[in-house]
């Protein structure tokens, strides 16, 4: 049986069970259990300044739901716990400082199997990524306060599909993959090379780039475009040409199968645009070098070496948002958050929005 881990979060704010006695003698080191106003996680979309007319209870409910979402997206059910069928509630404690950071993060209750360490990791990671708290208040002043956060680890059978925004069941576990006519992937590559048309009006522009399209292949073999990313902001003419190409594959697919029946699944198709105009050779060569560097960076185990290659690739293709995203991710993994946010902000300026907006807001704010 395929089983995966689900982690549920419950907030116990200001009810940690620790003694209410003052733990320090100096005002700047005092940690309280009883205050006039409890700390509040400052989750994007639930910030007090965004909702000046909301009562405190509404802000808190919104913030707690937002924190649950962030934890759920970032936590990983430890393999050791999953294999040993370990379930239960882990409780971590931390102090919310007056500057909104957290300190003294530790496990109060552990269930083993690496669950306690994973709970600590994800809470620490959110703090390092930029999640801040509105500190507790006592007598009109910000004070330090200890919090307890329970996270319930529960195993359940993983469904073989995901539900998209339109309510479609998109299968991710398959017995057989969808197949393009003939020799499958080789036939699809040949079809793209033969059928793709570079927009004539832009032939002399030397624009190069990739448009990635997610195509739904339905049980009857019908296709439907689910999403499209124009990584180099090539523009509507190029986007339309990619759509035209995808539409021409209609009727040429065999659907995916799961447990003996055809199902809907998603196929990513990357469409590469390079002009064949003679004077565009230098631009095409620069794009090819950037893509080669990107492939080498993706395979690089050393983060600093990978970052160097991502940077060289970006220098060759400064408006390629896919390269900017991967360089920003490498910077983030190296704890260089400000530089990462510069790359993420550039993506937003180029495209108007990012395909990883929830992560960007957590790391970089609004």
Cα(first) to Cα(last) distance is 42 Å
Percent of residues in beta strands?
25-35%
Q: What is the helical fraction, as a range of percent?
A: 25-40%
Task: Tell me the number of structural domains.
Answer: 3
User: For the CA atoms, what is the radius of gyration?
Assistant: 25 Å
Main pleated-sheet profile: 6 strands, mixed
What characteristic shape results from the CA principal axes?
globular
Number of helices: 10
**Uncertain segments:** 11-25
Query: What average pLDDT do the residues reach?
Result: 88
SSE string:
EEEHHEEHEEEEEEHEEHEEEEHHHHH
Q: Tally of extended strands? A: 17
Structural class: alpha+beta
Plain-language structure description:
Helix content is 36%, strand content 26%. The radius of gyration is 25 Å and the shape is globular. The strands form 6 sheets. Strands 1, 2, 4, 5, 7 and 8 form a 6-stranded mixed sheet that branches. The chain has a 3-stranded antiparallel sheet with strand order 13-12-17, covered by helices on one side. The protein is built from 10 helices and 17 strands. It folds into 3 domains: 3-157, no CATH class; 161-275, 2-Layer Sandwich (TolA/TonB C-terminal domain), CATH 3.30.2420; 281-364, Serine Threonine Protein Phosphatase 5, Tetratricopeptide repeat (Alpha Horseshoe), CATH 1.25.40. It is an alpha+beta fold and 366 residues long. Residues 11-25 have low confidence and may be disordered.
């Amino acid at each position: 049986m395929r089983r995966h881990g689900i982690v549920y979060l419950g907030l116990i704010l200001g009810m940690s069970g620790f003694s209410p006695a003052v733990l320090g003698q100096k005002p700047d080191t005092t940690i309280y259990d009883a205050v006039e106003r409890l700390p509040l996680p400052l989750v994007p979309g639930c910030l007090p300044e965004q909702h000046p007319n909301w009562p405190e209870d509404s802000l808190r409910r919104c913030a707690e739901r937002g924190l649950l979402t962030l934890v759920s997206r970032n936590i990983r059910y430890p393999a050791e716990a999953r294999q040993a069928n370990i379930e239960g509630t882990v409780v971590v404690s931390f102090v919310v400082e007056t500057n909104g950071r957290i300190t003294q993060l530790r496990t109060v209750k552990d269930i083993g199997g690496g669950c306690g360490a994973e709970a600590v990791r994800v809470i620490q990671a959110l703090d390092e990524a930029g999640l801040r708290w509105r500190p507790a208040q006592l007598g009109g002043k910000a004070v330090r306060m200890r919090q307890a956060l329970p996270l319930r680890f529960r195993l359940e059978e993983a469904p073989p599909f995901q539900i998209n925004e339109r309510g479609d069941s998109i299968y991710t576990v398959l017995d057989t993959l969808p197949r393009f006519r003939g020799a499958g992937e080789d036939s699809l590559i040949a079809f793209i090379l033969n059928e793709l048309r570079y927009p004539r009006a832009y032939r002399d522009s030397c624009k190069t780039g990739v448009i990635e399209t997610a195509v739904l292949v339905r049980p009857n073999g019908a296709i439907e475009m689910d999403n499209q990313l124009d990584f180099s902001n090539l523009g509507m003419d190029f986007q339309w040409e990619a759509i035209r190409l995808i539409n021409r594959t209609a009727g040429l697919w065999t659907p995916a199968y799961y447990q003996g029946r055809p199902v809907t699944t998603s196929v990513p198709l990357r469409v590469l645009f390079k002009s064949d105009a003679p004077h565009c050779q230098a631009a095409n060569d620069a794009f090819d070098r950037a893509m080669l560097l990107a492939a080498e960076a993706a395979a690089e185990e050393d983060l600093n070496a990978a970052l160097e290659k991502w940077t060289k690739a970006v220098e060759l293709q400064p408006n390629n948002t896919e390269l900017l995203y991967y360089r920003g991710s490498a910077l983030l993994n190296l704890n260089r958050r400000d530089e990462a946010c510069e790359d993420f902000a550039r993506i937003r300026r180029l495209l108007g929005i990012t395909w990883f907006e929830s992560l960007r807001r957590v790391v970089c704010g609004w």
